Amino acid sequence: MEIHNGWDSLIIQNEQIRNITGLLGNYNGDPEDDLTTQDGHIISRNSTARDIHVDFGLTWRVRRQHSLFTYPIGKNYSTFQNEAFTPMFPDPAQTFTPEARNICGDDEFCLYDYHTTGRADIAGATRAATQTFKSIQIQAEPVLNIQIHCNMLRVKLIVE
């Protein structure tokens, strides 16, 4: 690890890049194995969000005995871990009220927020943000497309 201008940089040699795997997938160019569990099992990309969370994501949870973190006085591993927490997952069979459909149309993010919070104002804000994002995507043109080939890949880690 190196520090450059206040940034932590992790420098990985090309021959090491194929050994990287984790929550963000791997770098072998095959998206079919990006959901590889910590013990090497591959989870299908077509799995439900619940299955991906349980069968993939939780395998990468940092366990107390493997944690490299240090904690301030009065805090410990358990302060920052809630192993009983289960997020809400979208239900593909979920039916939505006419009000939800009127606000959201087919916007899955809006429908999720409406279902999760029960609040039309939050769903409406999500719908507006999604529409703005899609509009920007449509209007945006690549400014520059450069391919770089080098012996090293530099990854910047932002530490807050």
Characterise this structure.
The protein is an alpha+beta fold and 160 residues long. The protein has 2 domains: 83 residues, no CATH class; 49 residues. 31% of the residues lie in helices and 12% in strands. A 3-stranded antiparallel beta sheet has the order 1-2-5. The longest helix has 20 residues. The C terminus is likely disordered.
Provide a short characterization of the protein structure:
This protein is α+β, with helices and mostly antiparallel strands and 160 residues long. Helix content is 31%, strand content 12%. It has two domains: 1-75 and 82-89, no CATH class; 92-140.
In what order do the strands lie side by side in the largest sheet? 1-2-5
**Structural domain tally:** 2
Helix content: 25-40%
Task: Flag low-confidence runs.
Answer: 144-160
